[in-house]
């Protein structure tokens, strides 16, 4: 059976989106994610996101990484889901509520001529309790804790934004670190559910640069939950302010960890690239 899909990206973090409002849920989405995500033999993407009806929100986002593993949440992905249901008249209003594996999140749409341009996401409260992240690193919260890997010792700050993150502030986010240490940290025994790894250069108290090794997908051009975790980690370690501009490989995101409600807010773009039909089996 053929499957209609839409290729979208948020700051270069690209996924294949399948709307299940007007077609059945794929029988094996994990296998479909692996096939469609392949950069040479498929559509090419960081993963697959299903846009499904929800009993508690405007839509439900179900995401699968490029390796077929299911993940709880994606900050760039949820902005694209919001754009899709807004632009395609499934829920053409603001704010939107979208159900995820990390709970129901609220999004504010900035639209022009009926098309969503930028979207502000209430990413929720960060989880700082080590066992809930989860990580076996010491400390509660886990802030600037030594992490020994491949003969090097880095300082790790761990945050969950509905999915686990290990934030490492470094002088330079080099290929040696991101591509060399990222995959080793992802599967380290200190992270029982694996982990997303952020390598962060501090430009100033209000500006950072980030590269991400994403659990199940490898290096991605942006990571919204990771950028949110970086915002929190910057405050916890005294390196940055509560409002920051984060430069990622695919573009910029604005982050704020609001002291009044303890919630992280992320603002960024969402772009529809093209539509297509997957031939199926």
What does this structure look like?
The protein folds into two domains: 131 residues, Diaminopimelate Epimerase, Chain A, domain 1 (Roll), CATH 3.10.310.10; 133 residues, Diaminopimelate Epimerase, Chain A, domain 1. Helices cover 17% and strands 43% of the residues. The protein has an 18-stranded mixed beta sheet that branches. It has 281 residues and is of the alpha+beta class.
- Give the overall silhouette: globular
**Could you estimate the helical fraction of the residues in percent?**
10-25%
CATH architecture of the largest domain: Roll
Helix/strand/pairing class, anyone? alpha+beta
On the 0 to 100 scale, the average pLDDT is 97
Share of β-strand residues: 35-45%
Tell me the series of helices and strands, N- to C-terminal.
Answer: EEHEEEHEEEEEEHEEEHEEEE
Q: Could you describe the largest sheet, including whether it forms a barrel?
A: 18 strands, mixed
Find the CATH topology of the largest domain.
Diaminopimelate Epimerase, Chain A, domain 1
The H-level CATH homologous superfamily of the largest domain, spelled out, is Diaminopimelate Epimerase, Chain A, domain 1
Total domains:
2
What is the β-strand count?
Answer: 18
End-to-end distance, in Å? 7 Å
Please report the number of helical segments. Answer: 4
Q: Regarding CATH, which class of the largest domain?
A: Alpha Beta
Give the uncertain stretches in residue-range form.
none
Q: In angstroms, what is the radius of gyration?
A: 18 Å
């Amino acid at each position: 059976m053929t499957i209609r899909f839409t290729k979208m990206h948020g700051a270069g973090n690209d996924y294949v989106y399948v709307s299940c409002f007007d077609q059945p849920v794929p029988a094996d989405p994990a296998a479909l994610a692996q096939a469609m995500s392949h950069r040479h033999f498929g559509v090419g993407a960081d993963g697959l996101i299903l846009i499904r009806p929800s009993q508690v929100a405007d839509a439900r986002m179900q995401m699968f990484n490029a390796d077929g593993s299911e993940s709880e949440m994606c900050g760039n992905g949820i902005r694209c889901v919001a754009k899709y249901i807004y632009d395609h008249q499934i829920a053409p209003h603001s704010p939107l509520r979208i159900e995820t594996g990390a709970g129901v999140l609220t999004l504010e749409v900035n639209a022009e001529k009926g098309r969503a341009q930028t979207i502000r996401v209430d990413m929720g409260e960060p989880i700082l309790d080590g066992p809930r992240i989860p990580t076996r690193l010491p400390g509660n919260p886990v802030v600037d804790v030594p992490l020994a890997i491949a003969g090097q010792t880095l300082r790790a700050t761990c945050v969950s934004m509905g999915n686990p993150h290990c934030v490492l502030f470094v002088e330079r986010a080099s290929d040696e670190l991101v591509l060399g240490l990222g995959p080793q940290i992802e599967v380290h025994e200190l992270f029982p559910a694996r982990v997303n790894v952020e390598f962060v250069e501090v430009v100033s108290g209000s500006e950072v640069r980030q590269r991400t090794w994403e659990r199940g997908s490898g290096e991605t051009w942006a990571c919204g939950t990771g950028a949110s975790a970086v915002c929190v980690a910057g405050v916890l370690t005294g390196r940055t302010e509560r409002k920051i501009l984060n430069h990622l490989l695919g573009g910029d995101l604005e982050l704020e960890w609001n002291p009044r409600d303890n919630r992280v807010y992320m603002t960024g773009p969402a772009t529809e690239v093209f539509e297509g039909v997957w031939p199926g089996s």
